[in-house]
Design a protein that fits this description.
By secondary structure, the protein is an alpha/beta fold. It has eight helices and eleven strands. It has a single domain (about 5-215), classed as Rossmann fold (3-Layer(aba) Sandwich). The strands form three sheets. It has a seven-stranded mixed beta sheet with strand order 1-3-2-8-9-10-11, sandwiched between helices. Strands 4-5 form a two-stranded antiparallel ribbon. It has a two-stranded antiparallel sheet with strand order 6-7. The longest helix has 16 residues, at about 80-95.
Length: about 220
């Protein structure tokens, strides 16, 4: 077995078109799996997309589902399989013929955090990332390791005001971090707990369909 094969993540896919022009990677949250994000994809309704849903490579310590980051602050975090797997997935997607500007990452909770950690370290920009109810755990480290090229990746941050698992302030802090880096970034806080409600689907659709038009219609907000 080759090294590339060893790095491959288990995935499932969903296509809304026979000839998709965009590819969207859906990243599940903690204790999720490769099937968790397909209902979200069908809810968002991107007409010309191929969705890829990778499974996180580590078994969660709860005995069910999977996690992108294994460990804890005391013992340290194991993340190498995630980095290798995600980079291999992105390489495979490019080999299929998709342009970098047509690649999107959308993640929920821990998957949202991964989308930010991955996208900012890439030596190129992509079409955009959509972190939903996520957080940046080690902001100083990410700031040092983020590439100049990734500043061209637009970002749509989404977070529920009633989220008691990851407080909305986590996305507000991320928003200011991205603004300071010079990203095109927009934050939408909505009335919901730790979930992806149906009423934010049109916003996601607009962002993926045409991010330039999206930012012309949606002005940056002020976060104290």
């Amino acid at each position: 077995m080759t090294a590339a094969a060893n790095n491959k993540l288990i995935t499932s896919t969903y296509c809304s078109s026979k000839q998709p022009t965009k590819i969207i990677i859906g990243l599940h949250g903690w204790t999720g799996n490769e099937h968790m994000f397909e209902p979200v994809a069908k809810m968002i309704k991107i007409d010309d997309a191929k969705w890829v849903f990778p499974r996180a490579p580590y078994a969660s310590d709860t005995g069910k589902g999977y996690t992108w980051f294994s460990g804890n602050d005391e013992k340290g975090w194991e993340i190498e399989k995630t980095w290798l797997g995600m980079n291999q997935l992105l390489n495979d997607i490019q080999s299929e013929g998709f342009n970098l500007k047509d690649i999107y990452l959308i993640g929920f909770s821990q998957g949202a955090s991964l989308s930010m950690e991955i996208a900012l370290r890439l030596p190129y920009s992509i079409g955009g990332i959509i972190p939903i109810a996520g957080f940046i755990k080690f902001k100083d480290i990410l700031g040092k390791e983020a590439t100049e090229e990734s500043k061209e990746t637009p970002i749509l941050l989404l977070h529920g005001n009633q989220d008691e698992i990851i407080h909305v302030s986590a996305s507000q802090k991320a928003y200011k971090f991205f603004q300071q880096r010079g990203h095109m970034v927009y934050l939408e806080c909505y009335d919901a707990a730790h979930k992806i409600p149906q009423h934010i689907a049109p916003l996601i659709n607009d962002f993926i369909s045409d991010s330039i038009r999206f930012f012309k219609l949606n002005s940056p907000i002020t976060v104290e």
